[in-house]
Amino acid sequence: MVIALHGTYGEDGAVQGLLEVMGLPYTGSGVAASAICMDKAISKRLFADGGLPTPPWRELRIDDPAHAPDHIDGLSFPLFIKPLANGSSVGVSRANDADGLKQALAAAAEVSPRVLAEQAITGRELTLTILDGEALPLIEIRPKEGFYDYRNKYTKGCTEYLIPPPGLDEAVARRVGEIGVAAYHALGCHGLARVDFMLDADDAPWLLEANTIPGLTELSLAPQSAAAAGIPFDELAERILASAWSRA
Ligand SMILES: Nc1ncnc2c1ncn2[C@@H]1O[C@H](COP(=O)(O)OP(=O)(O)O)[C@@H](O)[C@H]1O
Ligand SMILES: [Mg+2]
């Protein structure tokens, strides 16, 4: 089966488990990796366990007043507040101060009672496509305004995508590739995946999250990255299919 689904049930291990029980091979990551990548906090714990750089964070439970928002001690503004499980930047916002934090927590809580407060990294945003454990060319994501939120992700013209990231030091690009591939393995990913990064002012890379079902439309990032590596779309599709058999 080719899984082309996003979010709950499709991307979080549920459909993967169903296919597993039915004995049908399927594309992409297995049950555990799919569930882990859907949970940003568990992903970050695995990054940290593996010695991989991810911005400092706290996990909050909005429905437990004993927990939030005092639980951000040790972090300083600006922060990113996000629901633990979701995607497409839904419920994600940047908080610059205590007032902003209140608003950001309320927005995230609409999506999930479990929320992540993460130190903001100010700098360039990069995404690394990984196919069968191999890093493909990096893409820089440059929203014209603000961060890569829902609007900037899905409105044409709001964000520039640059392959390769202009002027990026080769050693930095190599390091991002190594960290990304290590993250892919730490999370147990399979087949195609995409790992999101921020670079800080010193060009040090920080892992944000991994996506186990990257978009595959004409405008999506993974196919562009594959094309830059000389892998046309039909070959990418074949390799994704082959990954289903290699696990089965
Ligand atoms: N710690 C952070 N520092 C700076 N920007 C961030 C941080 N966390 C998230 N962002 C911004 O928010 C966007 C969405 O966050 P992300 O963790 O990738 O969640 P999603 O699963 O919704 O894509 C990122 O692409 C980035 O632009
Ligand atoms: Mg993301």
UniProtKB/TrEMBL annotation:
<dbReference type="GO" id="GO:0005737">
    <property type="term" value="C:cytoplasm"/>
</dbReference>
<keyword id="KW-0133">Cell shape</keyword>
<dbReference type="Pfam" id="PF01820">
    <property type="entry name" value="Dala_Dala_lig_N"/>
</dbReference>
<feature type="domain" description="ATP-grasp">
    <location>
        <begin position="44"/>
        <end position="242"/>
    </location>
</feature>
<dbReference type="GO" id="GO:0005524">
    <property type="term" value="F:ATP binding"/>
</dbReference>
<keyword id="KW-0436">Ligase</keyword>
<keyword id="KW-0460">Magnesium</keyword>
<comment type="similarity">
    <text>Belongs to the D-alanine--D-alanine ligase family.</text>
</comment>
<keyword id="KW-0961">Cell wall biogenesis/degradation</keyword>
<dbReference type="GO" id="GO:0071555">
    <property type="term" value="P:cell wall organization"/>
</dbReference>
<dbReference type="InterPro" id="IPR013815">
    <property type="entry name" value="ATP_grasp_subdomain_1"/>
</dbReference>
<dbReference type="InterPro" id="IPR005905">
    <property type="entry name" value="D_ala_D_ala"/>
</dbReference>
<dbReference type="GO" id="GO:0008360">
    <property type="term" value="P:regulation of cell shape"/>
</dbReference>
<dbReference type="GO" id="GO:0046872">
    <property type="term" value="F:metal ion binding"/>
</dbReference>
<feature type="binding site">
    <location>
        <position position="209"/>
    </location>
    <ligand>
        <name>Mg(2+) 1</name>
    </ligand>
</feature>
<keyword id="KW-0547">Nucleotide-binding</keyword>
<feature type="binding site">
    <location>
        <position position="196"/>
    </location>
    <ligand>
        <name>Mg(2+) 1</name>
    </ligand>
</feature>
<dbReference type="GO" id="GO:0008716">
    <property type="term" value="F:D-alanine-D-alanine ligase activity"/>
</dbReference>
<keyword id="KW-0067">ATP-binding</keyword>
<feature type="binding site">
    <location>
        <position position="211"/>
    </location>
    <ligand>
        <name>Mg(2+) 2</name>
    </ligand>
</feature>
<dbReference type="Pfam" id="PF07478">
    <property type="entry name" value="Dala_Dala_lig_C"/>
</dbReference>
<dbReference type="InterPro" id="IPR000291">
    <property type="entry name" value="D-Ala_lig_Van_CS"/>
</dbReference>
<dbReference type="InterPro" id="IPR011127">
    <property type="entry name" value="Dala_Dala_lig_N"/>
</dbReference>
<keyword id="KW-0963">Cytoplasm</keyword>
<keyword id="KW-0464">Manganese</keyword>
<comment type="function">
    <text>Cell wall formation.</text>
</comment>
<keyword id="KW-0479">Metal-binding</keyword>
<feature type="binding site">
    <location>
        <position position="209"/>
    </location>
    <ligand>
        <name>Mg(2+) 2</name>
    </ligand>
</feature>
<protein>
    <recommendedName>
        <fullName>D-alanine--D-alanine ligase</fullName>
        <ecNumber>6.3.2.4</ecNumber>
    </recommendedName>
</protein>
<dbReference type="InterPro" id="IPR011095">
    <property type="entry name" value="Dala_Dala_lig_C"/>
</dbReference>
<dbReference type="InterPro" id="IPR016185">
    <property type="entry name" value="PreATP-grasp_dom_sf"/>
</dbReference>
<dbReference type="InterPro" id="IPR011761">
    <property type="entry name" value="ATP-grasp"/>
</dbReference>
<keyword id="KW-0573">Peptidoglycan synthesis</keyword>
<dbReference type="GO" id="GO:0009252">
    <property type="term" value="P:peptidoglycan biosynthetic process"/>
</dbReference>
